[in-house]
Write a structure and sequence with these properties.
Layout: H1 2-40, H2 56-59, H3 63-72, H4 78-113, E1 119-120, E2 123-124, H5 125-163
Antiparallel strand pairs: 1-2
Helix pairs in contact: 1-3, 1-5, 3-4, 4-5
């Protein structure tokens, strides 16, 4: 009984941490979506809010792993959690890696020559977007870490139920 209670408590704690990360991801996602809408619908001049970089478009799919993660929680659905973890790599981490590479020449230009050609509210767009990449990478990294721990907890709990 004590083991089941500790697994339950661990599951509750991990779910809570993952939810915080998902909500943080949602804020990042909404900010990128807002930038895209402002850029494409010309709600503000492009010298105020730059058009999105190419990596931002596939990153919009990063909402799917978060939704799968949330869907896995009510019934401890291992399949949804595994799909969430795999799709986090594909739709969240991969676009961030691509984005870091895509923006590197602009970052070099800014660093070496002090020249920026795209801006977001007066700040160099490449600097702002690298900050987004760094924060998002941490969010997704911790999300994967906690999801793996939660998955292990669910597996252990399932195995103990089968033994009884």
């Amino acid at each position: 009984r004590e083991r089941v209670a500790s697994h339950y408590q661990m599951s509750v704690t991990l779910k809570s941490e993952i939810k915080k990360l998902i909500y943080t991801h949602l804020v990042i996602w909404l900010l990128l979506l807002a930038q895209m809408c402002v850029g494409h619908f010309k709600l503000l001049p492009h010298d105020q809010v730059a058009m999105p970089y190419q990596w931002e478009y596939p990153y919009l799919l990063s909402i799917l792993p978060s939704l799968l993660g949330l869907l896995s929680f009510p019934r401890n659905n291992i399949s949804y959690l595994v799909l969430s973890m795999i799709s986090t790599g594909l739709f969240s981490v991969a676009p961030l890696i691509y984005g870091a590479m895509e923006m590197f020449p602009m970052a070099q230009q800014l660093y070496r020559h002090g020249k920026a050609y795209r801006f977001i509210f007066g700040f160099s767009a490449v600097s702002v977007m690298y900050l987004v990449v760094v924060v998002a990478a941490q969010v997704h990294g911790w999300q994967l870490y906690y999801s793996k721990k939660l998955l292990d907890s669910w597996f252990t709990s399932t195995q103990e139920k089968k033994k009884k």
